[in-house]
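Write out the bound-state structure for NAP.
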Amino acid sequence: MKLAVIGSGNIGKSIGAWAAVSGYEVIFSARNLQHAQEAAEAAGHNSRSASIIDAVKEAGMVLLAVPYGAALELLAELKPLLQGKILIDPTNALTADYSGLALGFTTSAAEEIAKIVPETKVVKAFNTIFASIFASQNPIIKGNTISVFYAGDNKDAKSEVAALISKLGFDAVDSGPLAASRNIEPLALLNISLGYGLGHGTSIGFTFVR
Ligand SMILES: NC(=O)c1ccc[n+]([C@@H]2O[C@H](COP(=O)([O-])OP(=O)(O)OC[C@H]3O[C@@H](n4cnc5c(N)ncnc54)[C@H](OP(=O)(O)O)[C@@H]3O)[C@@H](O)[C@H]2O)c1
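---
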């Protein structure tokens, strides 16, 4: 499957590069095309760059690797192009000082995103993991495989995203319908707090033990 990456920053370039190594045809895009070109050059394999619109047109699955606020604006514009496609949402809607979630309890970033593109199959994933883990292309820390919690309302879309998660070597944990993003998003805040606030650094992750 072709994966379009919108936003070639820390998350976009690292997940995109890893997906390319794992056999996905990856199309990097960004506002600044040069950033997408650099990401594609660094990723190599079967990857290239394109404008955001062209990347989305071509791919069946799209990774929305931009800040939450930018995502809302962008999606209003991309709505017709995203119809029927899978949209992976790794965003974290944080307060300006990163100390809290900007929304929760009665909604989530993923649900707000899905409201803008109701005919797109939104799947929450990857938001609880630091970009440096993706950049390392190593999902295992001290023998523990990091879990990627994912949530969505469309069964087939969830299977495709679970396949990507597993292909990267993570433990894919089905966490329920899209509304379960209300549970997953606070976990990202805990990760940030442990990593930065409490000094554990960014080579950390959660493992779900069954
Ligand atoms: N960094 C982490 O460890 C981490 C972990 C989990 C989840 N996340 C989430 O992942 C998302 C991306 O984070 P990041 O760290 O990769 O951010 P980043 O390094 O700042 O990259 C952001 C990307 O978004 C693009 N962008 C910004 N505003 C835009 C707009 N209005 N329209 C179109 N594109 C826009 C930028 O484009 P240009 O290159 O053209 O400027 C850039 O490619 C965020 O929602 C974040 O909460 C981050």
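---
The longest strand covers residues 147-152.
The mean pLDDT is 98.
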